[in-house]
Amino acid sequence: MKQTSKHIIKASNLSIGYTSKKDTLTVARDLSINLNAGNLVCLLGKNGIGKSTLLRTLTKVQPELNGEIFINNSKLETLTNNELAKTLSLVLTERLPDSSLTVFELVALGRQPFTNWIGYLTNEDMEIIQSAFEKTNTKHLMDSKCYELSDGQLQKVLIARALAQNTPIIVLDEPTAHLDLHHTVNTFSLLKNLASEFNKTIIISTHEANLALQLADELWLMSPSKFVSGKTEELIEKNELDQLFDSKLISFNKSLKQFTITNS
Ligand SMILES: Nc1ncnc2c1ncn2[C@@H]1O[C@H](COP(=O)(O)OP(=O)(O)OP(=O)(O)O)[C@@H](O)[C@H]1O
């Protein structure tokens, strides 16, 4: 099923959650998404609110409970695995199983949707892989074994693999979860640059709310009562950030455009 829309990701009346034989857990309902290409989106919300569930649903890792999702005007459920792998790449934070793959081999796996059945890499594949190493500044790690990498290095290498996959959409679930401040800012800047310079559509779930406020083009805010999305400035103007954490300890400071600790 095809739609004609300018939005690279579109969802309406979307409900997400989990079904078991016994019952259904609805994590969030009636979500509406209209995302333009080339934007860096940060998905914010407190622990357990449903960020991973939403990203897993948008990437077809799990089915939606209700509603429709369109990626590049095609209904998500009609896309084959190969079509999907050419459209979006997913970067998860879990450590790889103790893998003796080299970093080069891991990044080259990003070309899998495009290679033939023996996985032969063409000159074009090699150029795309080289460019992925250059953009992420990870060339020096090429010959290392994946198990030798620090969390920060692994995160960059996983972004390189997503770039080797060369998809218009990259989805990252908490990409900076284990990183220090320097590497967190570095990763956000890299993703921002990929969106603005290479027109990638990048969606990140994160707890780095203050960084997201500074760098994201668009925010998706999940709270128990609602889901809102929009340009960062517009959401600030509409006071949408006030309800995000429902906490007496932190509040949103509109003039600073940052969350601050509440004075007791
Ligand atoms: N496989 C699963 N089966 C059933 N319920 C699940 C499953 N995975 C997550 N949940 C539940 O869904 C809800 C949303 O979880 P989710 O992991 O999406 O939250 P999150 O916003 O990503 O949290 P965090 O910021 O802590 O990573 C939680 O109540 C969680 O317990």
From TrEMBL:
Organism domain of life: Bacteria
Keyword ATP-binding (UniProt): yes
Pfam families: ABC_tran
PROSITE patterns: ABC_TRANSPORTER_2
Domain ABC transporter intervals: 9-249
Keywords linked to the UniProt accession: ATP-binding, Nucleotide-binding, Transport
Signal peptide range in chain numbering: none
UniProt-listed SMART domains: AAA
InterPro entries for the chain: AAA+_ATPase, ABC_transporter-like_ATP-bd, Metal_Ion_Import_ABC, P-loop_NTPase
GO molecular function terms noted in the UniProt entry: ATP binding; ATP hydrolysis activity
Name of the protein this chain belongs to: Iron complex transport system ATP-binding protein
Species the sequence originates in: Lutibacter flavus
